[in-house]
Structure formats: C-alpha cells, structure tokens
C-alpha cells in the first residue's frame, strides 16, 4: 500500500481537529456564558488527542531516523551489512536510497580490501625472504613463514622481543645487525657456509617509527654465479694462453729447424716474435693479478692540476675542468691507472684523438670525472654488461679495464656509470666523494 506524504497526513489531522474544535466551541457556547471558557475547555480536551495522532503519524519517520543513526554507528564500527526498505517517496525516500547505496559501496570496498589483504598476506607468507616488522618498543609485530623457519624454529615470532630473538641467532648475524645498515654476512664454516643479505628500512606507521627487517639467503644464487664466473675466467684464460702458446711452440720448433739447417739469419725474427708473445702473455697475467689483488686505497691529498699533467704525460686528451690548487684525497696510483684505462678505451673507440676529453668538476661533496669520446658508443646490451669483469667486445680484450675502474671507484666510496652521448660517443662518469 502506497504511503501518503507526511505533510498531507499532518494537514488532514490538523483540519479535522480544527473543524471538531470549532463545532465543540459553538456547542459549548450555548451552555456557557463565556465563549473563551468554552474555547479553553475544547483546547484542553482535544490537545492530548492531537498530540497522540501527530506522534502516530510521525512514528515511522522517527523510527527511520533512529535506524539511520544506528546504521551510522555500525558503519563506524566496520559493520556494513545494514540496509533499509522504505516504500515512501520524496526526500525521505531519496535519503534512504542514498543510504543504501552508501552501504553497498562500503561493503564492496571492504570486500575488495579484505581480498587485497589476503593476497598480500599470502605473498608475504610465501616469499623466500625472511621478513619481520619491529615496533618502537623493539617487539616483533609480524614475521612471515621464512622468518619463523630461519629464526624461530618454526614458531610464531609475534610479540617476542627482537633483542632476545637476536641473542639466540648466530654470532655473524648479530655482528651484521650491530654494524647497522645493509650488508652481507656468512654463517658456518668453509664447507657448510651459508651466505645472507641483510636489509633494514625505517618507516612511520600510525605516527610511530617501525623497522622492516629483510633477510635473504643467497648461497645458492651466489654459488651458481661463482660457477659461471669461473667458467668464463677459464675460457678467457684458455683462449689467451692458446693464442700465445701455440705460436710460441710453433716458432720454437721452427727455430730448432733453422739451427739444424744452419739458417741463422732467420733466427732473430723468430725469437723476436716469441718475445712479443711472451711479453703479451706476461702483461695479460699481470692485469689479472692486479685486478684480483687490488689493495684498499691509500687516501692522500693530491693537487688536481699536477695530477692531470702527470696523466697527460702518458696519454693524450683535451682537458676541461677546475684549475688552480684544488685538492682531493684519493689513491693517486689507483686513480691514475683507472683513468689511463678509460682514456685508452676512448682512443680505441673510433673517436678522433682531439675529441677525447677529460672533464673534472665539483658536485656537492664530491668530484665528478667524465671521460668523453665521439666513437660509436654502446648498444643497450653492452651498456648493461660493460662494467662486469671479463666482459669485452674487443677481439683481444681481457674485459678488465672498465671492471677495474669500477672496483677502484667503489673502493673510494664512489661510483661509475656509462651513458651514450647525444650526437654520438660515450661518456664514462666517475664520482668520488670529497673525503
């Protein structure tokens, strides 16, 4: 049955009571001398009935308002299951419809949020990386399955003191946490060594600082990389040794034949070639030894202008950078060797000699050294691998020049990067902290 508008119902009740009141007032006026007394009696008699009927008329609306207020409280508590069925039209009908639409939207959002939380929890629990969230009181808020297995013998970690948990961990792990920051450490002896990477991040959650601790076991990955590296080293060394030893053996045999035949005039040529190949092999092995035994840098103050002039005496380049008595603290010998390799690479890139340039400038608290050329540059595949040891695109390259430069830069606390120049050529950029 369709509801009548409340305004119409209220108007009908008011008209009915006005008509009844007027009739009763006229009727009582015939018996009472004072019309105002008759009116007062009629009002006193009809007022309670009017209030009763008005309350009955507005009762559904009041009930609806109470229900809406209760649903808002339920929404605040996270219960979005309430909806209303109101057959009336007008403003109240639109209010109820809007409320129901709001409830539907909140339920959908809640369901989506629950599904996302479930997915995220599933991913966190099944990742091989041990993850722990530590609150400001240094208690564990959350630990995934990998963390339980690695540090808790399979038991739940939530609520435990992080310090107590760490006290039961192996000593190398405790030392890694004491050092702070990210880093790698190994646990166990040589035959049963396990290698881990520690990562720690601080962030604010609900206005409080929390720490996210990540522990990843890298033993299997590093073992595979180590095997691949050794295979590559063996291939490179075998190739270089064969390239030198095969002609040496052949020329030694030829020299013996020349001696037997008395053809002494051809011996110097054979011996010179043997010497050249032996020298090349000696240099090749020396380069590998230098890379493998690179010592820690011995930082000493150097004057850039003198350093650049010393470098120019060994390799040609155009210079664009700081002048005067600018000072830096570096290992001069290591940096010189690194830049010689980079400048020689620039000359071998196909660039014109006058376009090989070295730039030096100050950037914040560091020095930036750029070696520039106008050669053919590098494609993406070469750029991504050029800094790796033993990677080379040259026919007779050892793949150690750029790797050695990277090793020296990182040993100084700096970094090195390669990028193609606009208009052709390559820029090798080395940044060294001004310690």
Topology:
Blueprint: H1 6-29, H2 35-76, H3 90-126, E1 130-134, E2 140-143, H4 145-151, H5 162-167, H6 171-179, E3 183-187, E4 194-205, E5 208-217, H7 219-261, H8 267-292, E6 300-303, H9 304-312, E7 318-321, E8 327-330, H10 332-347, E9 357-363, E10 366-372, H11 380-385, H12 401-411, E11 415-420, E12 426-433
Parallel strand pairs: 7-9
Antiparallel strand pairs: 1-2, 1-5, 3-4, 4-5, 6-8, 9-10, 10-12, 11-12
Catalytic activity: ATP + protein L-histidine = ADP + protein N-phospho-L-histidine
Protein name: histidine kinase
Transmembrane segments: 36-54
For the record, the CATH class of the largest domain is: Alpha Beta
Average pLDDT over all residues: 80
Quick one: overall form?
elongated
Continuous helix count: 12
CATH architecture assignment name of the largest domain:
2-Layer Sandwich
What share of residues is helical? 40-55%
Total individual domains: 4
Q: Provide the gyration radius in Å.
A: 44 Å
* Gap from first CA to last CA: 88 Å
Order of strands across the main sheet: 2-1-5-4-3
* Uncertain stretches: none
Question: What is the name of the CATH superfamily of the largest domain?
Answer: Histidine kinase-like ATPase, C-terminal domain
Count of individual beta strands: 12
CATH topology type of the largest domain = Heat Shock Protein 90
User: What percentage of the residues does DSSP assign to strands (E)?
Assistant: 15-25%
- In terms of structural class, how would the helical and strand content be classed? alpha+beta
- What sequence of helices (H) and strands (E) makes up the elements? HHHEEHHHEEEHHEHEEHEEHHEE
Largest sheet: 5 strands, antiparallel
């Amino acid at each position: 049955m369709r509801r009548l508008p409340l305004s119409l119902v209220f108007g009908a009740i008011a008209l009915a009571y006005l008509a009844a009141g007027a009739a009763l007032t006229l009727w009582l006026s015939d018996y009472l001398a004072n019309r105002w007394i008759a009116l007062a009696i009629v009002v006193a008699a009809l007022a309670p009935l009017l209030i009763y009927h008005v309350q009955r008329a507005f009762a559904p609306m009041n009930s609806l308002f109470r229900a809406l207020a209760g649903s808002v409280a339920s929404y605040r508590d996270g219960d979005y299951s309430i909806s209303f069925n109101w057959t009336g039209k007008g403003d109240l009908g639109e209010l109820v419809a809007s409320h129901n639409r709001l409830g539907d939207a909140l339920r959908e959002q809640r369901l989506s949020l629950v599904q996302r939380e479930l997915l995220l929890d599933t991913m966190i629990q099944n990742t091989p990386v041990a993850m722990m969230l530590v609150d400001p009181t240094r208690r564990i808020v959350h630990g995934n399955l990998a963390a339980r297995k690695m540090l808790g013998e399979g038991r739940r970690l939530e609520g435990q003191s992080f310090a107590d948990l760490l006290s039961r961990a192996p000593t190398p792990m405790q030392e890694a946490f004491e050092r702070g920051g990210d880093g790698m450490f190994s646990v166990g002896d040589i035959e049963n060594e396990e290698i881990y990477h520690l990562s720690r991040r601080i962030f604010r959650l609900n206005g409080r600082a929390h720490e996210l601790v990540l522990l990843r076991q890298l033993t299997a990955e590093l073992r595979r990389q180590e095997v691949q590296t050794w295979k590559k080293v063996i291939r490179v060394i075998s190739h270089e040794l064969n390239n030198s030893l095969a002609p040496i053996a052949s020329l030694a045999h030829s020299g013996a034949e020349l001696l037997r035949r008395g053809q002494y005039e051809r011996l110097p040529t054979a011996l010179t070639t043997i010497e050249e190949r032996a020298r090349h092999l000696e240099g090749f092995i020396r380069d590998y030894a230098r890379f493998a035994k690179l010592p820690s840098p011995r930082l000493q103050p150097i004057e850039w202008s003198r350093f650049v002039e010393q470098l120019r005496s060994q390799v040609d380049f155009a210079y664009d950078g700081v002048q005067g008595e600018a000072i830096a603290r570096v290992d001069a010998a290591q940096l010189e060797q690194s830049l010689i390799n980079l400048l020689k690479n620039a000359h071998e890139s196909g660039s014109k000699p006058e376009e090989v340039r070295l730039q030096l400038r100050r950037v914040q608290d560091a020095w930036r050294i750029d070696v520039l050329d106008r050669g053919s540059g590098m494609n993406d595949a070469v750029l991504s691998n050029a800094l790796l040891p033993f990677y080379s695109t040259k026919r007779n390259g050892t793949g150690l020049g750029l790797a050695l430069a990277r090793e020296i830069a990182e040993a100084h606390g700096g970094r090195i990067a390669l990028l193609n120049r606009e208009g052709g050529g390559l820029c090798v950029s080395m940044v060294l902290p001004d310690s």
